[in-house]
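Suppose you are handed only two things: the residues of a chain and a line of SMILES describing flavin mononucleotide. What would the bound structure be? This form records exactly that question and the answer produced for it, so the two can be stored side by side and reused later without any lookup.

QUESTION INPUTS
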Amino acid sequence: MKVVGFVGSPREGGNTEILVEEMLKGASESGAETKIFNLNALKITPCQACERCKINGGECATDDDMQTLYKEIKESDAFILGAPIYMWQMSAQAKIFTDRLYAFFMTGFEEKYGKKDIALTFAQGNPDENAFTDYLNSVKDMYGLFGNVRDPLVAGGTHEPGEIKGNETVMRRAREIGKDLVN
Ligand SMILES: Cc1cc2nc3c(=O)[nH]c(=O)nc-3n(C[C@H](O)[C@H](O)[C@H](O)COP(=O)(O)O)c2cc1C
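ANSWER OUTPUT
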């Protein structure tokens, strides 16, 4: 059992990273092998819409660090995407990663690599955890193209890096979701 986490915040030690780490801890406690990647630290080019993936059986033609992540996702049983909310949406780092998953769309991904379990988590300054529900549900539905997606975990009212550690409810939920990905 392998679970991979992707962090879409540029802030090391930020709230998103902590949430993804907490989910991975839960998964690890349940016996999974885990790995974490910071998208901001990798060279991931935006999708070039060349459509080569559609004639290459889902293989993306852009040779960058996303090739490593494609491999990790294919080999995983479950994966996690964490992102901060920037301007009412996921960060650009997370969106570029998400767009690149287009390579898997309509190319027999599930038949070849299995149905993944997927968790999504978002950190936002807005204390109202329902502020972006419509948008986040749309993201959840779209990630449903690649597997079974949990309801997004939202950490509201977070501004300074690490602030989320003071929110016991969200931290506990993150750990539970990580466990649930495995069990
Ligand atoms: C460029 C930028 C845009 C932001 N836009 C929003 C926003 O639209 N809504 C919101 O609630 N918080 C917004 N925030 C606050 C972040 O979502 C919040 O600080 C979050 O905890 C950052 O996560 P991190 O610690 O993982 O980097 C924004 C922050 C930045 C830097």
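WHAT STANDS OUT: The longest strand covers residues 78-86. The pocket of flavin mononucleotide is lined by residues 9, 11, 14-16, 84-88, 123-126, 158-159, 161 (CB under 6 Å).
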